[in-house]
Amino acid sequence: MKALRGLRALTTLSSKTQKPHLTSNLLYRFYAAQPQQQDHSTTTNSLEDHEDDDAVFDSSQFALPSMGTSPVPDQPTWDREYRAKADRTIFGEETQKQKSEEDERKRRAIVLAKALLEAALQKPDEEEDMPVKEEDQRSLSVGIIGAPNAGKSSLTNYVVGTKVAAVSRKTNTTTHEVLGVMTKGNTQICFFDTPGLMLKSSGYPYSDMRARVESAWSSVGLYDVLIVIFDVHRHLSRPDSRVVRLIERMGAQAHPKQKRVLCMNKVDLVEKKKDLLKVAEEFKDLPGYERYFMISGLKGSGVKDLAQFLMEQAFKRPWDEDPFTMSEEVMKNISLEVVRERLLDHVHQEIPYGIDHRLIDWKELRDGSLRIEQHLITPKQSQRKILVGKKGSKIGRIGIEANEELRSIFKRDVHLILQVRVK
Q: Region G1: which residues (predicted)?
């Protein structure tokens, strides 16, 4: 009987389905003491692809409002008159806040009526909109030179009325000659903003300057009027002998074919205005300068008098630029200058000066918007990582700010693409 029972138990166990168990390979994977060999090729490729994605800014990936739409401010749902009537009924008299609001509305109405009356009495300026005949056109070329950070680009942008040159607190912001055009009436003035120029101790230009600075020196005699500009605030606090030598060399003798003007810039930073007279007295004996101006290129103080003087010096000859439309070449330069300005704002030390900044693609789309692609080429991989930032944060910030400014300058939608790569 015991043998039969044992045989029956073995038969029952063999007839049951066996439960799945861990294979030897899986057990080896979990419990083996030796490290497992991973496929690093796929991991490396995925990391490189992720880094490449971070190194590219594409404005289409960000929600930007269209140029044609503007947010409508919330308006109160009640009528002000009924609200005032309810307050009088409840409180018996008008509150102080209501009285002040009513006085402010009356004051604004008076100011508006006065401004409309003055505008109606003025003669219409027909010369601004009507085309000027070629025989009546007058033009002038003006070069602006000076030491680095003297305010040349700020003056150019203010006179032209829009940004055409990058402005930064860092030195050597302008890397090439930038053109800005001002057209008023029958006169057109072309301003040429040049890179910062310096003189060494012997009074001659630095021999180690790059080709762009040498080109700026060679073009000094090509302009009708030459503006020599310097930072008067810095001259009063920390005078630089190199700047003084530059001013003295440019004004050492009169030039029969060119008029030269000396501009003392950043007068708004000088607290004691009497000190400006001391600076003017210092350079008054230089025969090469026909006029002296005290200006603020950033705030606009004194710029109107300078512009009026330049318009009086214009020659009777045809214009060089179209006053009604901005040429494509000028727009391309503006796009590069705007991105460079943001680059200098967010990237520090020597990194922005070693970057090769190129315009790769410029295309006007069917809907009127612009597609602009620029590449920022760094000499080292470490500099590329700094420029890109963590998860593309720095290049993204540069791209967003530049894209917004380009939209405001060009008055149209802009699709900006920035790519950072290693040389």
A: 146-153
Tell me which residue has tokens 């508006």: 112
User: Would 356 be classed as within a structural domain?
Assistant: yes
Beta strands in 72-177 (DSSP E): 138-146
Tens of pLDDT, residue by residue over 278-310, are: 898 989 888 899 999 999 988 888 999 999 999
**Crossing angle between the packed helical segments 393-410 and 328-346, to the nearest 10 degrees:** 140
Cα-based angle 307, 310, 316 (whole degrees, multiple of 5): 130
Based on the fold, state whether residues 176 and 312 are members of the same structural domain.
yes
Boundary (domain end) residue, out of 269, 291, 316: 316
Evaluate whether residue 120 is within a structural domain: no
Tens digits of residue pLDDT in 377-410: 988 888 888 888 888 888 889 999 999 989 988 8
**Co-location of 340 and 306 in the same domain:** no
The answer on 383 and 263 residing in a single domain is no
Cα(211)–Cα(173) distance, rounded to whole angstroms? 16
This prediction has a pTM of 0.63
User: Torsion-angle region of residue 144: left (phi > 0), alpha (psi -120 to 50) or beta?
Assistant: beta
Provide φ and ψ at 416, rounded to 5°: -100, 135
112-122, pLDDT tens digit by residue?
Answer: 888 877 777 76
Domain that holds residue 412: 328-422
